Amino acid sequence: MPPPKIVVTERLPEPALELLRGAGSVWAPGEDGPLAPEALRAAVRGAAGVVTLLYDRVDEALLDAAGPQLRVVANVAVGYDNVDVRACAARGVAVTNTPGVLTEATADLALALLLAVSRRLGEGERLVRAGTPWSWSLDFLLGDGLQGKTLGIVGLGQIGRATARRARACGMSIAYCGPRRADAAVEAELGARYLPFPQLLADADAVSLHCPLNDGTRHLIDADALVRMKPSAYLVNTSRGPVVDEEALVRSLRAGTIAGAALDVHEHEPAVHPGLLELENVVLLPHLGSATRETRTAMAVLAARNVAAVLRGEPPLTPVVAS
Ligand code: GLV
Q1: Which of 4, 150, 235, 286 is the right S-S partner for 48, CB 3.0 to 4.6 Å?
Q2: Does the beta carbon of 289 lie inside 6 Å of ligand 1?
Q3: What is the per-residue pLDDT across 139-171, written as a single tens digit (0 to 9) for each?
């Protein structure tokens, strides 16, 4: 029997490729960057395993194109909103993601964004790079301190908890909301108060989003939510862009409904809302949450281990379960 075909939709770090070569015959695109949907469908034809990135849509069309021998889709991301998990389950295709290995890197970035927006780092950097004359003075580019403030965490999963730990180190207290209450031990460790979402918005000095994107969280932060936040509050998003209604956010930032926003992810990625680009009180990054060398390698290796396990007939290490 020929070795099973494994498709990777973008070149992966060598340790992951090495694992995949041990599990089958690997096809990878010659160039970096997303494959167009037709190219992706052509590539997966006959594959037993596919390693996808968060911009690859895994839908009925892709599953049809792959064929009935497909056994596993391994998404190199903790989020899996790009994958139709139910359609995969209906065809007996395992879906896996990469939880755990990117927790600390993403939480580091959430804290970095909170500091960047509250201490106006982007504004300062732009000013220096523009060669604008400046001198130290008591009221020059003043921001807000974090000590004694409340961080509202939307979604106290692994990344939310890791962000809360960092915020506590900065002297913040923690409130959180989510579909269910965390264990008492987690609440005790973080000193975290469980609040209904509207109350969290009203109480927090900064709101950090750590929820998955799904039908319940799309545009969770809309005009109504923004108006509930304090005018002095900041919004940080390292989850998925569509959790925030960017039109509403731009209107709120222009009107001073909230003090600022720091976004690693964007509603129509890789496009960035032009209204955001014009605003000084916004920090914008190109989806860098897990972008450390160590983390990206660990993510790719975990995806490869998942593919290898399923193709050996073993259960996947980090399966995504259809809800
Ligand atoms: C990145 O955004 C991820 O979901 O891992």
Answers
A1: 4
A2: yes
A3: 999 999 999 999 999 999 999 999 999 999 999
